């Protein structure tokens, strides 16, 4: 075959000195690697800008900057932690404890360009894809802490939680931990990401304390249109979230993408129907919550169930978390005591647990054999009449795995919050909470003037402006 530079008179001639010199190794599958890099970028876009826009829009105007900035900081901080030590704690081969591997750096070209854990893509692709998962998990935890957590406490919380909580879940379920060896099913993070973030967020919210009373009682979104934009990025980015789990552009990846959107649409419409029947209103915020619960519920089983099961999971994820949020939450004093602004416990912990249970129910044996190299399952519905004990064993393992993830996050998150409270205050002062972004960062989300100053401050700094001029301004611009 002719090489670059063989035909100097052709219009596409490239001098030998500029021709590519990388020779792909036999193990590298370029199609799989291209899809995996795309999937990793899609997962990253769910956080930046997806959750930045979603968080910054769902809160009151005075918390828009702080909420968005918590997500942006976490994304950057997790990347450094992940590459420098957390990735190898989660997926390294040198076992340090039964719960995580030896912490060590991934910054090595020889390592990053070598054959990765999944075989057909290099380690660099695997590291970045798994980083995007770790980052979004921490950002989801932030959803329970918006509107009152001291930003300096958040700065400390992120690396500590990634190191001592997230890595344990990833190692025990996805790497070489005891739950993975026993055969737990978690296709793309229903337990590792969603159950852990929901439980950790609720636990941290308990230790940080609630928002001020006025903010709890009256906290409308500051921009519902932007909120829908952020939600759309989250939904579409989930194609990479679940479609990238096989680390190959194969049939299971295609099935996972279709099931993801099928379940999500069903869940959204179910939640919307529940709102219309009970409250006689079609709530936009409710529709977004139903979208999220559908995405979360299908995640641990996306490429392992048939579409009929994905639709059934959508019905369950649009109704059961709705019930826990709208009914049970109001009946229990403990739920009322803990301030969870974006209901992360219900949308992620409850929906993630539901998805893990559904994986134990509906995982199809043929799909399990295509995805897992060892024997898992099958789902309970495929064992009626024969081998029922195998389905029952799998369900017991799903429940045991959920109990471990929940318990670990309650304990570790509590210890982290207690440690941080000895260094800085977990919660902002009440006086600062009344102000919001300006007190936390000296910045506000919406400025009426080109120089960034609020209109009221312009009036106060210009004593020559007569009061009669102010009276001619629109009401929203007056002092």
UniProtKB/TrEMBL annotation:
Cellular localization per UniProt: Cell membrane; Membrane
GO MF term list: ammonium channel activity
Gene3D superfamilies named among the record's database cross-references: Ammonium transporter AmtB like domains
Keywords, comma-separated and alphabetical: Ammonia transport, Membrane, Transmembrane, Transmembrane helix, Transport
InterPro entries reported in the protein's UniProt record: Ammonium/urea_transptr, Ammonium_transpt, Ammonium_transpt_CS, NH4_transpt_AmtB-like_dom, RhesusRHD
Recorded GO CC terms: plasma membrane
NCBIfam families associated with the record: amt
Stated family: Belongs to the ammonia transporter channel (TC 1.A.11.2) family.
Record's protein name: Ammonium transporter
Species annotation: Aquilegia coerulea
Source organism phylogeny: Eukaryota, Viridiplantae, Streptophyta, Embryophyta, Tracheophyta
């Amino acid at each position: 075959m002719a090489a670059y530079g063989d035909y100097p008179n052709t219009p596409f001639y490239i001098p030998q000195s500029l021709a590519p010199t990388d020779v792909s190794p036999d193990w590298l599958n370029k199609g799989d690697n291209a899809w995996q890099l795309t999937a990793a970028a899609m997962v990253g876009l769910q956080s930046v800008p997806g959750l930045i826009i979603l968080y910054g829009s769902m809160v009151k105007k005075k918390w828009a900057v702080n909420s968005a900035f918590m997500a942006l900081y976490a994304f950057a901080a997790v990347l450094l932690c992940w590459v420098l030590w957390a990735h190898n704690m989660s997926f390294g081969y040198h076992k340090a404890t039964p719960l995580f591997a030896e912490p060590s750096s991934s910054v090595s070209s020889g390592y990053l360009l070598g054959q990765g854990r999944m075989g057909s893509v290099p380690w660099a692709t695997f590291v970045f894809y798994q980083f995007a998962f770790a980052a979004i998990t921490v950002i989801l935890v932030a959803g329970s802490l918006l509107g009152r957590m001291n930003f300096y406490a958040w700065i400390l919380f992120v690396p500590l939680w990634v190191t001592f909580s997230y890595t344990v879940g990833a190692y025990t379920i996805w790497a070489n931990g005891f739950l993975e060896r026993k055969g737990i099913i978690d296709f793309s993070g229903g337990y590792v990401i969603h159950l852990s973030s929901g439980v950790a967020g609720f636990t941290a919210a308990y230790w940080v304390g609630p928002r001020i009373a006025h903010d709890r009682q009256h906290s409308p979104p500051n921009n519902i249109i932007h909120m829908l934009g952020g939600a759309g990025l989250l939904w579409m980015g989930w194609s990479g979230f679940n479609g990238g789990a096989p680390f190959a552009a194969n049939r299971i990846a295609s099935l996972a993408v279709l099931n993801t959107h099928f379940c999500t649409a069903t869940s959204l419409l179910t939640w919307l129907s529940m709102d219309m029947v009970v409250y006689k209103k079609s709530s936009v915020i409710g529709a977004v919550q139903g979208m999220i619960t559908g995405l979360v519920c299908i995640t641990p089983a996306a490429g392992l169930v048939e579409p009929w099961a994905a639709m059934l999971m959508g019905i369950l994820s649009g109704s059961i978390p709705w019930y826990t949020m709208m009914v049970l939450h109001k009946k229990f004093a403990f739920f009322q005591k803990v301030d969870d602004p974006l209901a992360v416990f219900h949308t992620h912990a409850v929906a993630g647990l539901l998805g893990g249970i559904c994986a134990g129910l509906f995982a199809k044996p043929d799909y399990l054999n295509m995805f897992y190299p060892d024997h898992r399952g099958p789902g309970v519905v495929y064992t009626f009449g024969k081998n029922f004990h195998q389905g029952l064993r799998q369900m017991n393992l799903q429940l045991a795995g959920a109990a471990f993830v929940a318990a670990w996050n309650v304990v570790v998150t509590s210890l982290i919050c207690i440690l941080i409270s000895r260094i800085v205050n977990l919660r902002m002062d009440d006086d600062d909470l009344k102000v919001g972004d300006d007190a936390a960062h000296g910045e506000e989300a919406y400025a009426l003037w080109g120089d960034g100053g609020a209109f009221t401050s312009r009036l106060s700094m210009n004593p020559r402006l007569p009061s009669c001029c102010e009276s001619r301004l629109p009401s929203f611009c007056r002092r």
